[in-house]
Every structure is written in structure tokens, then in C-alpha cells.
Amino acid sequence: MAGLAIPTWDPETALLIGTILLEAIVLYVGYGGLERIVGPRLLKLVVGGE
Description:
InterPro entries: DUF7512. The chain is mainly alpha-helical.
């Protein structure tokens, strides 16, 4: 049956996948923090509310 073989992991591939996942987590946390800090100020500036 084609396509059912278990792939072998190359250490470079595993490192690349780990690096990409770590970068995604850092960006997610970083943009979340930035939104908490800058978001309300920017919203007040754009909307002009309280």
C-alpha cells in the first residue's frame, strides 16, 4: 500500500520544525502583549472615545 510508510526523521528536519514552532509561539505571545499595551491607546485615538 502506497503512502503508509512511516517516515524517518532527519535531525535537521526536526530542528527546523522545532525552530518554526518556537518562532510561531514567540510571535503569538509577542503580538498578544503588543495588542494589550498598544490596542486600547490606538482604539482611543482612532475612535476618539473615552
